[in-house]
Amino acid sequence: MKHITIKDIARQLSLSVSTVSRALMNDKNIRKETKEKVLETAKALGYKPNPVAINLKYGHTNTVGVIVPEMVTPFASQVINGIQSILYANGIKVIIAESGEDSSKESENLKMMERFMVDGIIICLCSYKKNKDEYNRLQKSEMPMVFYDRIPHGMNVSQVIVDDYLKAFFLVEHLIREGCKRIVHLQGPDDVYNSIERARGYKDALSKFNIPFEKEMMLKTGLTFEDGENAANILIEKGVHFDAVFAFTDTLAIGAMNRLRDLNKKIPEEVAIASFSGTVLSTIVYPQLTTVEPPLFQMGKEAAELILEKIKNPLSPNRFIVLDAEIQLRASSMKKSSQ
Question: What secondary structure, in 3-state letters, does 10-48 show?
Answer without folding.
Answer: HHHHCCCHHHHHHHHCCCCCCCHHHHHHHHHHHHHHCCC
